[in-house]
Amino acid sequence: MKVVIIKYNAGNIQSVKFALNRIGIEPIITDSPNEIQSADKVIFPGVGEASSAMKYLNDKGLNKIIPNLKQPVIGICLGMQLMCKRSEEGNTDCLGIFDQQVLKFKGDVKVPQVGWNNIYNLKSPLFKNITENEFQYFVHGYYVGKSENAIATTNYITEYSSALQKGNFYGVQFHPEKSAEAGEQLLKNFIEL
Amino acid sequence: MLTKRIIPCLDIKDGRTVKGVNFENIRDAGDPVELAIRYCEEGADELVFLDITATNEKRKTLSELVTRIASNINIPFTVGGGINSLEDVSILLNAGADKISINTSAFKDPQLIKELSSRFGSQCIVLAIDTKFENGDWFVYLNGGKIKTEKKTLDWAKEAVELGAGEILLTSMNNDGTKNGFANDITKLISENVNVPVIASGGAGSIQHFSDAFVLGKADAALAASVFHFNEINIQTLKKELRNNKIEIRL
Asked: What are the tens digits of pLDDT across the range B71-105?
């Protein structure tokens, strides 16, 4: 099993690597198109800012590679947002794998959302052995609204898509690599897809 | 619903966990990684590691320890103590820390907050404030509580958030080590006046104190050290009790 973590300028790659190590996987961290294309599973992590991350991906030509991958791909947090069409963060055109727009949280609440929130309306093998309303760890100031691609929903100010799926592409807004046993289960499920 | 977080803090000196009483008379409380694992199993929502000797002795937090922690635990953690440059932060984040906390260095050079948040993102920059109530107001203290400033705590918190701090870790020196409860008045004041999460710290002695920090202090998270280290409060029992009190808690 060849698992690749896409290396780019939006960090937390170490955390994802350590989490995979804990479930017995030694990932390859790379930005080489060949390595990424030949992987069995691709993980697209991310903590950071959308426009500078997209600039890096465009410069490396990864904006052409990622949307054409055929194996299971999962975007985490900013990774998921970059798989969408457009982000309000820096008014950035993203990869367009999902048709959705990424919006900024507005209202009388603290932004970013930081902490553990629950996920429900779970609709994918990605959530095998994960119960409705299970908690996952979130850190984000931007979100994807309710959509037909949603495979999990969460509520913060408003109900929004906390996970998306379209074909072989998956995205999670939370951080499974930091979400204790429930997060580890999700990573295992992804590896087993 | 987003839940309130319970955060055990591990004060580190020479790679070992210690807990100060009013920042002095330090006692040894064990191996940090072992304790961290125990806290995860008990249901801690996050962890904070503070290298308490770092500011005074100009010691860097050991990045090997951070890596050992990161490979062993599966919840987020913050590392602080003596961090004063972009390079320090870069090393710690690459070693596996999720967030870093800055205190004295940020006060002395507020632009550091701006540089760090634009480089690494606000979400990983926690501003720690040590505060003390005297002469009718709350003031900022530096160097682990040794140096008084004339800056009011609310003013500093607002300024820091403006510059890009993503969270405030507020420790009341009047309460720290007393086990008489958190400083709910200043916690509430900060929490209602900044748009980022506020972590209440200092004074935890009972389950009721945590409940008060969330309800009266409007804290988003509550941090404690010795009550957890010495098993005076079990995290799981605490969280069950808080949920019984209708506080949003992850169980």
From this structure: 999 999 999 988 889 988 988 888 899 999 999 99
Here the tokens at position A152 are 């999990």
Residues 87-116 of chain A with CB under 8 A from chain B are 110-116
Instruction: Look at B122 and A11 and tell me if their CB atoms are within 8 Å.
Output: no
Count up the domains in chain A and report the number: 1
Computed over every residue of chain A, the mean pLDDT equals: 94
CATH number for the domain including A26?
A: 3.40.50.880
- For B:61-100, CB contacts with A below 8 A are 70-71, 74-76, 93-96, 98
pLDDT tens-digit series, residues B112-131: 999 999 888 888 999 999 99
**Per-domain residue ranges of chain B:** 5-244
Residue B56 has pLDDT above 70, yes or no: no
What is chain B's length?
251
Secondary-structure class of domain B5-244 per CATH: alpha beta
Give me the residue label for tokens 């429930």.
Answer: A182
Strands A158-166, A113-119: parallel, antiparallel or unpaired by DSSP? Answer: unpaired
- Determine the structural domain holding residue A23 and report its residue range: 3-192
- Which of B40, B121, B220 shows the shortest C-beta gap to A47? B121
Phi-psi region of A157 (alpha: psi -120 to 50; beta: other; left: phi over 0): left
CB contacts of B166 in chain A (<8 Å) are: 112, 114
